[in-house]
Batch of 3 targets.
Target 1
Amino acid sequence: MREMIEIRTHSALHVLKGATRKVLGAKWTASTYVNGPHGRLTVQFERKPTEEEINRIFVEAQNKINEGLPFITEKLSREEAEKKYGDEIYDLFPVPPEVKELYIVIIPEWNINACNKQHVSNTKEIGEIKLDHWRYRNAKKLLEISFNVI
């Protein structure tokens, strides 16, 4: 049971990242965290967002979840993946150089990431996500967004 909720929570990170990119233009993920229904996405961002922007991120994310978009996974050599997708597939935390094959997780026209975790088959399976809290760490230029999957 706990495993399924963590799959939903992890999948929600991908949707939330797409919404954060759409609303704020934040490209780089600094870290992610999942524990049961609780998740946290930390992205690099140059300023403190407004409450309105944070709320828009969650509206956009929930709309994508409600669309029931597929999670598509491609297994490619690292070289092929980088040629096809460039640095879009990466985060700030590096994939070790010895990793020669990548799983590329795609939510069409929303999010793309190298990720070797398990995901739901479509966004509707995530359910609902609710903002828990957020904070902006000005010294590090990091935005932390904590949420819960319901």
Note: Residues 89 and 113 are 4 Å apart (CA to CA).
Target 2
Amino acid sequence: MSNPITTWIKSGMETYKDREDWMAERVSENSVNSQKLSDERHGPFKPHNVHQCESRARVNFRPSAAISSLAGSEMGDAGSFRAVRAYQSDFAKRRDEILTDIAKNG
């Protein structure tokens, strides 16, 4: 006859295989997370060191136009979310035009 408290403790203990599996999972998750950080830092839409916060009270941000003919429009501010949204909506309109043209003319 075994002690019920000892049985309860043994049932809650993890095995060596469980610890090894958990460690392998943790290492793989850290590998994926470090690659995500690297991709986000060096991606096409993000500048280098974008993860660092701005320590100044007033951020030195002056929007600059990528193309002078777009200055003053939503697409004019290079690197802004408004510009990306404007470009994406224009691309979606152009895509729909192309798809309707293909549907009509074959």
Note: The longest helix spans residues 16-41.
Target 3
Amino acid sequence: MAPQSYSILILLFLQAPGIFVHGQTTDPFDRSNPVSAQTQYGPIEGFIHAASDGTSSNVFLGVPYAKPPIGDLRFERPLPPDSWSSTLQAKQFRNACIPYRYANINANVPISEDCLYVNVIAPSEPSDDPSGYPVLVYIHGGGFWYGNVIRAGFDKATKVFASRGLITITMPYRVGLYGKIFYQRL
């Protein structure tokens, strides 16, 4: 991924006021308790997730970090996403990127070329540190051939990382034909 894309990712979430709010749900996978944030591209609405261990996190799923790499952008470097004015619903994972071999995927995971979306799992409570929480970026394995971040989910990130005061960002990347060509050109 180009260094510029990392700065876009960091600006998108670390500069987002309102990412920390109070609230709690009773069902650990209930997405009905909303939480909002303003990003540099527009407003997003996720949900507050209460894990079975009592840890609560703010979850934003499927937030674009680049324009969809389709059509003329298919084999090009990622470009910043277009801004939006209405609130983007960020409560569901987006499609996984198309793998090199379809045998390497889980049949329950939808795939698409339009797959450049991040997921953010953040502690629900504001940080005591004026500089905020540290950020962990998870980029799945698979050697540019296969893999996705959907398998990582958000419940485990809440229990393991949000409970320890870490913001977790899971980030897919183009794999297979679309990724191999892209990364050879960097």
Note: Strands lie at 34-38, 43-50, 56-64, 88-89, 96-97, 111-112, 117-123, 135-139, 167-171.
